[in-house]
């Protein structure tokens, strides 16, 4: 997917990540940054060039983060975009409706500005009926994935 960022809308100035080891629960934005991991333009890790910048991309206004304001003037790289969606699906791991592992090629849709993966298309209709509760479940899945990943890194 090549998306020219002239269709990108800057949403928030900058998003600040919580310090490592912080006792506070991460915000949804911090979870999304942690799960997305890389900039869709540069491919650099988010946070390497200061606080990530939240933007909305495309007609469905998908929320994503860029590594810096300068990337808002450049095109999204299709390979980075694919990696980001793979990162998000891996962190989500399970369908929030059926509570079973996502298949190799899950169905997906942009709901509330976020890409949501499900096991099958009928689950998308169930999520559309109650988007907030399902998005909260997905945030919990993200938090669990990031906590597991952090624990694996600390063991090394």
What does this entry look like structurally?
- The structure is a single chain.
- The protein is of the alpha+beta class and 156 residues long.
- It has one domain.
- Helices cover 37% and strands 15% of the residues.
- The protein is built from four helices and five strands; from the N terminus they run E-H-E-E-H-E-E-H-H.
- The chain has helices at 28-36, 78-92, 121-129, 131-155, and strands at 8-10, 53-57, 62-66, 107-111, 114-118.
- Strands 1-2-3 form a three-stranded antiparallel β-sheet. A two-stranded antiparallel sheet has the order 4-5.
- Strand 4 (107-111) and strand 5 form a beta hairpin.
Number of strands: 5
Shape: globular
Quaternary organisation of the protein chains: single chain
Report the uncertain regions. Answer: 1-22
Helix-strand layout with pairing:
Layout (H helix, E strand, L loop, with lengths): L7 E3 L17 H9 L16 E5 L4 E5 L11 H15 L14 E5 L2 E5 L2 H9 L1 H25 L1
Antiparallel strand pairs: 1-2, 2-3, 4-5
Helix pairs in contact: 1-4, 2-4, 3-4
Salient structural properties:
single chain, alpha+beta, 4 helices, 156 residues, two-stranded antiparallel sheet, disordered N terminus
């Amino acid at each position: 997917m090549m998306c020219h960022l002239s269709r990108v809308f800057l949403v928030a100035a900058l998003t600040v990540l919580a310090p490592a080891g912080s006792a506070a629960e991460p915000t949804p934005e911090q979870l999304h940054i942690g799960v997305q991991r890389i900039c869709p333009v540069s491919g650099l890790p988010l946070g390497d060039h200061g606080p990530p910048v939240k933007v909305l991309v495309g007609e469905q206004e998908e929320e994503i983060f860029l590594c810096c304001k300068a990337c808002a003037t450049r095109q999204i790289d299709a390979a980075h975009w694919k990696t980001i969606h793979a990162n998000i699906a891996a962190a989500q791991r399970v369908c929030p409706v059926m509570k079973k592992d996502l298949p190799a090629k899950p169905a997906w849709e942009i709901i509330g500005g976020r890409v949501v993966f499900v096991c099958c298309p009928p689950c998308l209709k169930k999520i559309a009926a109650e988007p907030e509760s399902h998005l909260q479940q997905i945030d919990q899945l993200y938090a669990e994935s990031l906590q597991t990943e952090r624990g694996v890194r600390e063991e090394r």
